[in-house]
Amino acid sequence: MESRKYLSAQGLLTLIHEKFTKINPPRTITKRSEIELVDCLMSGLAMFSMKSPSLLQFEEYSKTNDVIKRNLRTLYQIDQVPSDTYLRERLDEVDPREIRKVFKCVFAQTQRGKALEAYSYLDGRYLMPMDMTGFFSSSSIHCQNCCVKKHNKPQVILLDQIPKDITLYEKNTYLFCRNAYLSWQLFYINETEKMLSIDMKLPPELKEYLFARKRKNINATHVKLIKEMITAYHENQFNNKVTYYHNMMCAAIVHPDKKIVIPLAPEPVLKTDGATKNDCELNAAKRLIADIRREHPHLKLIAVQDAIGANYPNLLELRFADMRFIVGVKPDNHKDLFNLVNNTACQEYRHETNDGKTHRYRYINGVPLNSTACFDINFIEYWETDKKGKVKHFSWVTDIHITNENVYQLMRGGRANWKIENHTFNTLKNQGYQFSHNFGHGYQHLCTNFGMLLMLAFLVDQIQELCCELFRKARAVFRTRIGLWSRMKSLFTEYIIASWDDLFNAIAYGRKEAPLVPNTS
User: Fold this and answer.
1) Burial of 38 per CB tally in 10 Å (0-12, 13-18, 19+)
2) Model-level pTM?
3) Is 500 helix (H, G, I), strand (E, B) or coil?
4) Packing angle of the helix pair 481-494, 66-76 (nearest 10 deg)
5) Fewer CB under 10 Å: which end of the chain, C or N?
6) How far is 215 from 332, CA to CA, in rounded Å?
């Protein structure tokens, strides 16, 4: 059986190789022994494509096994396989935005192949869930772009008097209190919820700063400095553990009835030069929205996000980008909205589906998101009751006008947000992609580029599973994807493979038996 030419492994990898050759190397090759950048990029992609558990193992196998070297040349067009050290050095220099361009080309080829048409969901638009995930974490290795998480970070609260009830405050909290006799006192609520008095001599800068300063003379700048001093004292006393990490903001085209997702190029979550605070999910989402609209200016999208995205700046960015949205909301985080809905007459609708579930909705159009922003939205609250009486409850805001005819589709679109977590992140973490493994950090862009190449390998696999009948035949032989990856690796390391079609045909329909002939030369 032959595969679809342009949406098969051969067609997609040929396209990627062509685009990689157009990336200008950050350094000029001066030695004949230096390896071309395209070979480094394709080697990194091949490592993730073949689900190698480590960079060192990939190098050892490719250097010592002539069969693997021939297969890498035939299937991935790699002339020279770099060492693990050299590969890290070269990929560390590459701007991740160059790799991002390749995602656009692969996606465009998928569009031309009419593969995206089956994902059209509502009014000709495509559902696009967005969420953040981590792909690197270390307590020691870090760079200037790493986000930093300080464990056991204290909370500092200024009070006008010593509290009588400390149960109102959480553990690991400093209470900086005004005292009629001692002027100021510092207390610490420890892990056992006991309030300990801290000698003001211990943080000497704090005592000197507050000398003869009254509570009424402490302004916001003073409060900030006081909190920084107490936090520094705490870190010095308790030797706080620090974790350095890299995250990425991801988006994918999904459909509620399909397991396969089509990931778009991710957006790294990084601290920029000179930044003192971590980059956050909303900032990364803002950049990702702008990138997707620039790369796909005519793609009709419905952004789907969890409750962290239900704020005025984020929804305004989606509106400016001409993206419709379905975003989760929660009573605790959107009190004004829920108070308004609870005190306003809403439209109600109820129906049952063939699976025996009862669906009940309460919705209203054209209400303000909150009491401060002049931004109107449409609100849906939904209850699902199954045959056993178990109830699930969700609520969303959207800019799509809600009616009895489309509320079921809007509900399913909102619930499709779990596909970015389950069918993307969980697949990468639990289906052989080694997503949680640290392949290298580097000094500039290595960690980010490894994350980009891994997502590119995942995109190629997803397009094959969607569009390549031969790949689907090979996939159907195994209960899990890990089984397919294991068979592919075993054949890749033991047999000279002339084409991807031969590899998948051998897996799907079997291969001729051949005796084991040792090399006695």
Assistant:
1) buried
2) 0.83
3) helix
4) 120
5) C
6) 33
